[in-house]
Recover the amino acids of this structure.
């Protein structure tokens, strides 16, 4: 498989079940082994319920995209503008809230395609800054974002079940 076999398409209201499946699976693959089962389950039940996802998909300041291979969803992207952002930010700022890919597709360019889609949308919307939060215990993701020009500018708390974790906030200023 090469990246030309992967398509990126918008996820819409009819895709909530598929979004729930890919969201739960990829989050569990990424963080299940390093968090308690109870905290993980509490987070999944809260953030990846059909109701929570339907509300997020319906928000006009949020956008979801699926990465697909042979008709199967293998990853997804969520971006936020305005009040949908998880932190209050100035105008012309876009947040990449989620880029997740199924573990069996790690290293195959899927995350980069989703990232490139986000950056394309940032330019199309005249965003001046793109920012994101990444768990301080996720060196793979931190390295990916640093390689793509992001720099640390702050930290915030991320609540996973009963566990308060720290996300590094990273940003990229667009020319």
């Amino acid at each position: 498989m090469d990246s030309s076999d992967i398509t990126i398409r918008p996820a819409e209201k009819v895709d909530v079940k598929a979004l729930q499946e890919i969201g739960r699976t990829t989050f569990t693959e990424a963080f299940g082994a390093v968090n308690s089962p109870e905290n993980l389950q509490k987070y999944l039940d809260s953030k990846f319920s059909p109701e929570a996802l339907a509300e997020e998909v319906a928000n006009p300041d949020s956008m979801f995209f699926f990465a697909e291979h042979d008709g199967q969803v293998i990853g997804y992207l969520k971006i936020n503008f305005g009040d949908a952002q998880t932190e209050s930010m100035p105008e012309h700022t876009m947040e990449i809230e989620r880029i997740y890919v199924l573990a069996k597709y790690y290293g195959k360019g899927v995350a980069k395609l989703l990232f490139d889609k986000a950056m394309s949308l940032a330019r199309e919307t005249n965003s001046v800054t793109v920012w994101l939060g990444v768990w301080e215990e996720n060196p793979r993701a931190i390295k990916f974002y640093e390689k793509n020009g992001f720099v640390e500018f702050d930290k915030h708390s991320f609540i996973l079940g009963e566990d308060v974790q720290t996300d590094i906030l990273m940003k990229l200023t667009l020319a």
Helices lie at 16-31, 37-47, 50-58, 110-124, 139-147. The first helix runs from residue 16 to 31. Residues 15 and 91 are 29 Å apart (CA to CA). The beta strands are 6-11, 62-69, 72-81, 93-101, 129-135, 151-160, 163-173.
